C-alpha cells in the first residue's frame, strides 16, 4: 500500500472506531474505542507526515519533533510545525492526549494538563481532531500535487 492509501486507511479506521465509541455500551467498551480512535488519529498524522517526506524526497524521520525542527522544510511541513507548536491547536493537543494515553490511559483524573479528562467529552474532541486531519490532508494534497 502506498503512503496516500495508508493515510486514507487510518483516517477510515478512526472514523469507524469513533462511530463505535459513540454507540458503545459500557464504560470499558467506550474507552476501548476511544483509545483506538486516538491511536488511529495519531497514525493519520504520522502517515500524512510520511507522505510529505516521501513527496519531497526528504531524509526519513523517526521522531515528529525532530523532523518538524529541521531547517528549510517544504511549506506543508512548516505549517505542521507551526500547528504543533501552538499550545491551543488541535495537533498539539492530539499529540499530548496520545502521549498521556500511552503512559496513563485516557481516564486519569489526576493529570492536570489542561486537557479534557472526563470520559463523555472524548468523542466530540476526537471528532474535531478527525475533521481537522481530513481538512489538512485534503488541502495539503492539493498543494503538493500542484507543485
Q: What is the makeup of the main sheet?
A: none
Instruction: Please indicate the count of domains.
Output: 1
SSE run: HHHHHH
Q: What gyration radius follows from the Cα positions, in whole Å?
A: 16 Å
Count every beta strand, where a strand is a DSSP E run of 2 or more residues: 0
Estimate the strand proportion: under 5%
What is the tally of helical segments?
6
Structure classification: mainly alpha
Question: Into which percent range does the helicity of residues fall?
Answer: over 70%
Give an account of the 3D structure.
- Helix 2 packs across helix 5 and helix 4 (75-85) packs across helix 5 (90-104).
- This protein is mostly helical.
- The longest helix is centred in the first third of the chain and has 29 residues, at 27-55.
- It has 6 helices and no strands.
- The chain has helices at 3-23, 27-55, 64-68, 75-85, 90-104, 122-146.
- Helix content is 72%, strand content 0%.
- Mean pLDDT is 89; it is low at 109-114.
- It has one domain (3-146).
- It is globular, with a radius of gyration of 16 Å.
Amino acid at each position: 500500500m502506498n503512503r496516500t492509501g495508508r493515510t486514507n486507511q487510518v483516517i477510515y479506521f478512526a472514523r469507524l472506531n469513533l462511530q463505535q465509541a459513540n454507540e458503545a455500551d459500557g464504560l470499558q467498551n467506550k474507552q476501548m474505542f476511544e483509545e483506538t480512535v486516538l491511536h488511529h488519529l495519531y497514525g493519520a498524522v504520522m502517515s500524512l507526515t510520511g507522505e510529505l517526506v516521501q513527496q519531497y524526497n526528504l531524509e526519513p524521520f523517526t521522531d515528529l519533533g525532530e523532523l518538524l525542527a529541521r531547517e528549510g522544510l517544504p511549506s506543508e511541513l512548516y505549517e505542521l510545525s507551526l500547528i504543533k507548536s501552538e499550545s491551543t491547536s488541535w495537533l498539539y493537543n492530539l499529540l499530548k492526549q496520545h502521549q498521556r494515553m500511552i503512559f496513563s490511559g485516557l481516564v486519569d483524573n489526576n493529570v492536570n494538563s489542561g486537557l479534557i479528562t472526563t470520559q463523555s467529552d472524548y468523542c466530540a474532541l476526537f471528532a474535531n481532531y478527525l475533521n481537522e486531519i481530513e481538512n489538512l490532508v485534503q488541502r495539503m494534497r492539493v498543494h503538493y500535487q500542484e507543485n
